[in-house]
Amino acid sequence: MSSYQIPQDEESQIVIEDNGEEHLFNILFTFDVDATGKSYMVLEPEGTDAESDDEEEVEVYAFRYELEEGDYKLIQIETDEEWDMVEELLNTFSEQEME
User: Fold this and answer.
1) Nearest residue to 73 via CA among 5, 1, 2
2) Predicted structure pTM score
3) Handedness of CA 66, 83, 77, 6 (dihedral sign)
């Protein structure tokens, strides 16, 4: 299982892979699922402006996350059940953005 670290700093959007490679992302939103006690984060690549071009789809990334030593530990979502739930929330978020 791959994991990533992202500093818990609103100004920082750097995702650091286990191999040390860094990528710039914006945090779109986070959410918690009370039934499971798990938290999730949705990111978009830095430089992507979803609001400026409604016609073009923007690729986003979703991860489960845990707070570890002051940083977010991003964990890949591996089950279909989790993906279905995240996809449903992303669709809801997208619909609200379009209104």
Assistant:
1) 5
2) 0.72
3) negative
